[in-house]
Amino acid sequence: MAIDHNSSPNGLTTIFWDNDSVKLIDQTKLPEKLQTITCFTYLDVAESIKRLAIRGAPAIGVAAAMGLALCAVKSTSSTKAKIMDELKSAYKILLKTRPTAINLKWGLDVVLEEAEKYESVEDIKKFAVACAVRMSQEDIAINRKLGRFGSDLIKDGDVVMTHCNAGALATVSYGTALGVIRSVKESGKKISVIATETRPVMQGSRLTAFELVHDEIDVSLVPDTAVGYLMANKMIDKVIVGADRILKSGHVYNKIGTYQVALLSKSHGIPFYVAAPLSTFDLCSETSDITIEERSVEEVTKIGDKRIAPAGVRIFNPAFDLTPPELIAGIITEKGVIVPPYEKNVKALFNSP
Ligand code: MRU
C-alpha cells in the first residue's frame, strides 16, 4: 500500500480506480490530514475496509467491487476456471471484512456475476474493472437523484440533524443524507445542519463536520448526549440519517445511537427520515438474521492514546443498532420517498419500472 497527499478528483472523491490500482481517502487520518492511499491488491482493499480507512455502506460496496476487480486484473491465471476460483476466494475474504452493511455483498455479487458472463481471461479482467468503475460512477448519479427527492421534504430555513456520516465520505461522492443537504443548498433554500459527534469512532465530528465545513455548508457540532436537549428546546426541524441495511419491513440498521435519536424525534414530533440507495435494501432477511458488528474495546477505553476507562472494566461496543419502522417518517431513495406502510410500499417501489 502507498500513501500520498490527497489526489482524489475535486477534493472529496472517496474512492477511485487509477491505473490498475484503487485510490481512497484514508478516513482514519481525518480531519487532520486529507491523505490518499493506494491499494495494489484486493488484500490491501480488505485491510482498508477493516480498519475503517474507507467506511460507510455505499463506499464499502464500491470498495469491495473494486477489490474484486483488482483481484481479476492482477491474476496470472490462464483459464476461466482458475481466475473464477481466485475471484471466489477473494469474494469470501472481502465479504468477511464487515458484517452489517448489505452494500458490501451487493458490490461483490455484481462484479462476480459480471465476470461469470465471459469466457476469456482477458474479457473477465476487462469487464470486471469496467463494472466496478461503472458502479462508482452510478453511485454519484444515484445520490444526486436521491438528494433531489429528499430536498422536497425540507423547507427554506430548516435546521436538520444528522448522526454519523452519510456524506461524500460514506459514498463515492455527494452522499445520501448529506446528499439531501447538498441538494437543498443547490436549490437555493437556506439550511443549517446539526451533526452529532457519534461516539466512539467520531464519524460526526471527524467526517461530517469536516466535509460540511469543506463545502461551506452551515454546520454545528454537538455531543451525542445533547440530542434530547436540542429537540426539547425546538432547535431541530428534521432528522436525516443514512442506513447500512434496510429490510422489506422498513427496519433500518444504522450507526449505533440512531435508534435513540429516532425515539427522541418521535417523542418531540420531529420527522425522522432515512436516506439510502436501493442497494442498501435487503429484501430477503429477517431481523433475526442480521449480525451487528462489535468493534474493539479500545474504541471505548481510549481517546487517541489516552486511556479514559479503568483497566479491567467490561466493555460492550456494538457498532450499529436497529430502528423500527414506526419511528421513520420516510425512506428517501433514488426512486422516490417510501412512506408507511413500509411492507407494502417497499414492495411497490421495487416492482415499479
Ligand atoms: O461504521 P461506519 O462508519 O461504516 O458506519 C457508517 C454508518 O452507519 C452510516 O450512517 C451508513 O453507512 C450510511 S452511509 C451513506
What would you note in describing this structure?
The chain has eleven helices and 17 strands. It has 353 residues and is α/β, with parallel strands linked by helices. The protein folds into two domains: 139 residues, Four Helix Bundle (Hemerythrin (Met), subunit A), CATH 1.20.120; 207 residues, Rossmann fold. Strands 7-6-5-8-11-16-17 form a seven-stranded mixed sheet. A four-stranded antiparallel sheet has the order 1-4-3-2. A hairpin with a 4-residue loop joins strand 9 and strand 10. Helix 1 packs antiparallel against helix 2 and helix 4 runs antiparallel to helix 5. The chain is globular, with a radius of gyration of 20 Å. Bound molecules: 5-S-methyl-1-O-phosphono-5-thio-D-ribulose.
Shape: globular
CATH class label of the largest domain = Alpha Beta
Query: pLDDT below 50 for ≥5 consecutive residues: which ranges?
Result: none
CATH superfamily of the largest domain: Translation initiation factor eif-2b, domain 2
Domains, number: 2
Mean pLDDT: 96
From the coordinates shown, what is the CATH architecture of the largest domain?
A: 3-Layer(aba) Sandwich
N-C termini distance: 43 Å
The number of strands is 17
CATH topology descriptor of the largest domain: Rossmann fold
The secondary-structure class comes to alpha/beta
Name the bound molecules. 5-S-methyl-1-O-phosphono-5-thio-D-ribulose
Main sheet properties: 7 strands, mixed
Strand content: 15-25%
- Kindly provide the radius of gyration, computed on alpha-carbon positions and rounded to a whole number of angstroms: 20 Å
Helix count from the secondary structure assignment: 11
Q: How are helices and strands ordered from N to C?
A: EEEEHHHHHEHEHEHEEEHEEHEEEEEH
Strand order of the largest sheet: 7-6-5-8-11-16-17
Portion in helices: 25-40%
